[in-house]
């Protein structure tokens, strides 16, 4: 069989078949971590949504300016570089700083809010390393 061991594991009975479904379904704590109450709440300030999407709007403005100055090829090349850099990350259970992405955007010399107050050791996505790697590889 040319499909290999990983495809045999994927063809086995999925974990979801053993879990309860419907209104009383449990939260998978090992794979998804603790639930965050903050994500269910509305923004506490009108500018919070604007600040959350700031980098997206900044990239769009930079791409439009680059297109007007250099033509269509420049923003397309930069978007391909962004996509390639976003794919390279650490293991799923480790926090990734995305330093290469910051360098492409020109933010590598700036100290921002996330650099000081976003402590990875207090992250809510930290979980069991073996479970997270196996889930990312499709073994679970």
From TrEMBL:
Pfam families attached to this UniProt entry: UMP1
GO BP annotations listed: proteasome assembly
Gene Ontology annotations for the cellular component aspect, listed alphabetically: cytoplasm; nucleus
InterPro entries per the UniProt record, alphabetical: Ump1
Keyword Chaperone assigned: yes
Keywords, comma-separated and alphabetical: Chaperone
Family label: Belongs to the POMP/UMP1 family.
Stated name of the protein: POMP protein
